[in-house]
Amino acid sequence: MKQLFIFLPCAALLFGLLTGCDTSPTDSEVEFTPTLFIEGYLVVGSSVTDIFVATTAPLYELYNRAQNAVPNASVTLQVDGATFTMFPVPDSPGHYHLPDLIVQSGKTYSLFVAAGELTAQAMTTVPFPPTLVTYQTDLVFNRTEFSASWSGDTHGGYVTTKKLELEGAPIPLERQFGGFRGGGGFGGTVDTTGFGALQDSLATVRDSLSKVDQWRFVQGTSTTLSWQQFSNYGTYSFQVYTIDTNYADYLASSTQDPQFLDEPRFHITGGIGIFASMAPSGVSFVVRE
Q1: For 64-87, what is each residue's pLDDT tens digit?
Q2: Which residues, at least 6 apart from 30, have a Cβ–Cβ distance to it below 8 Å?
Q3: Structural domain count, the chain
Q4: Are 257 and 106 a contacting pair, CB within 8 Å?
Q5: Residues 17 and 54 placed together within one structural domain of the fold
Q6: Per-residue pLDDT averaged across 156-181, rounded?
Q7: Could you give the 3-state DSSP secondary structure of residue 3?
């Protein structure tokens, strides 16, 4: 799921723009106070593999993720009344992990970060995975479409991905759009074209974020992948993730309404970024002639 999160550093800079309107972004004499930036995702059934800690940069500097990483932070995670100290990831400054702790649905995880005088904290309650109700395991190219539906209980919503797991022969160009190669998502490896449905019906209405067209990444309970979204025959995996409200709020608010200029909803106390959780469910299917 790392592919889905490439816009986070940009969001940090955007936040600086929104909160620094009274100064010139090119004025190097303006006093700058750094803020902690946190990026972390908990996935049900996996260990806590990567929590990234950095600081923000002045508006007049080009943001460099590696240079702003904090390699010596104190990072702890609390769950079920127990406190765990996270360890730095070797050769990856600013990254911390806890390989022996497996993420479980229904539990609340609280994150605490301290770096010098800077502190930040966040928490997430991990959702339960959805249940796939209907799906296909066999797709005849140019004749049938892959469709899936699922059920679950969430105030956040769902996102989906597909990935080519076992690559077969390329689909001839003459079979794709009469000669135009579509591919469906980053060369056919990961598809994000499914991100387009509505906010989950259980989600609460949130001021300007209640507009349906802002929920570009948060899906309902079904999706269809047409044959135009494939560039190779082979075996694919389809994953649907239940996401928590932290993730849903961030995805919805990262595309701002120009009428309101809402700041992204980070749910980080004392800092910015995202600390979220998700629970996957998936199935494999074959695309053939």
Answers
A1: 889 999 999 999 999 999 999 999
A2: 23, 24, 58
A3: 2
A4: no
A5: yes
A6: 82
A7: helix
